[in-house]
Design goal:
The protein starts with 10 loop residues before the first helix and ends in a 6-residue tail after the last helix. The strands form two sheets. Strands 1-2-3 form a three-stranded antiparallel sheet. A three-stranded antiparallel sheet has the order 4-5-6. The protein is of the alpha+beta class. The relative contact order is 0.11.
Length: about 200
C-alpha cells in the first residue's frame, strides 16, 4: 500500500474515519512511517495534485520543470513533454486539439519538422499548465453538466456542476479522432463526446 488520505465533512467525522483506518492498519499488521504521516492538514499533495478545500490544483513544483523546457529537438523529447503535460490534461480545456501539431510528429514515417504550429502548441500547453484553473471535486447531491464540442480532428468535453448561478469545472477531457471518425458529420462528431475518456 502506498498513500491514502482520510477525510470527513467535519472534524468529528474525520476523527472517526481516522480511528477506523488506524484500527484496520493495526489488524492487518501494516506499519506506518511516522515521518511520512501528516495529520489534520488543510491541504496536501495526492498523486501529484494539491488537494484542499479550494479544490484540486496542479502541483506547482512539477509544473515548474515543464515551464523551463526548451523546444523539443526530436520525437523522444516530444513524447516526454506530452507525457508530462498529459498528466495534467484534465485541467486543460481542448488539450488534444492544442497538442495536435505535436502529436502529428509522432506518427510513423513523418519527418521531424518543429514548425510554427508546433511552437505555438508547445508554448500554449506550457502557459495553460502554469495558469491551470482550480477544479472542484464533484458534489454528489448536485446534478452534473456535460458540455461537448468537436472539430475536424478532435473532441472536447467538460464535466461541471452549477451551484446556484456559479458553474464549476470538475474535469476536462479531449481526444483526437481516428481516420474513420474524421469522416463523420459535425453532429456525429459532437455525439462522440459522450465517450471521451482521456
Amino acid at each position: 500500500m502506498d498513500d491514502f488520505a482520510v477525510h470527513g465533512d467535519n472534524f468529528e467525522a474525520c476523527l472517526d474515519h481516522l480511528t477506523m483506518v488506524l484500527s484496520r492498519c493495526t489488524e492487518s499488521y501494516l506499519v506506518l512511517n511516522s515521518e511520512k504521516c501528516h495529520f489534520m492538514v488543510k491541504s496536501g499533495i495526492v498523486l501529484g495534485h494539491i488537494v484542499s478545500k479550494r479544490g484540486i490544483e496542479v502541483d506547482v513544483a512539477k509544473v515548474e520543470v515543464i515551464k523551463t523546457l526548451p523546444y523539443p529537438t526530436n520525437t523522444l523529447e516530444i513524447r516526454s513533454f506530452l507525457g508530462h503535460a498529459g498528466f495534467y490534461h484534465r485541467f486543460i480545456k481542448d488539450f488534444s486539439k492544442i497538442a495536435y501539431p505535436l502529436c502529428k510528429l509522432l506518427h510513423k514515417d513523418v519527418e521531424f519538422v518543429f514548425d510554427d504550429a508546433c511552437r505555438l502548441a508547445f508554448d500554449s500547453l506550457k502557459e495553460k499548465l502554469v495558469t491551470a484553473p482550480i477544479i472542484q471535486a464533484p458534489k454528489w447531491d448536485l446534478p452534473f453538466e456535460i458540455m461537448t464540442d468537436a472539430s475536424d480532428y478532435a473532441l472536447g468535453a467538460g464535466l461541471g456542476q452549477r451551484e446556484g448561478k456559479v458553474a464549476h469545472v470538475i474535469q476536462y477531457a479531449s481526444s483526437l479522432l481516428n481516420d474513420a471518425q474524421r469522416n463523420y458529420t459535425t453532429t456525429e462528431k459532437r455525439n462522440l463526446g459522450g465517450g471521451v475518456c482521456h
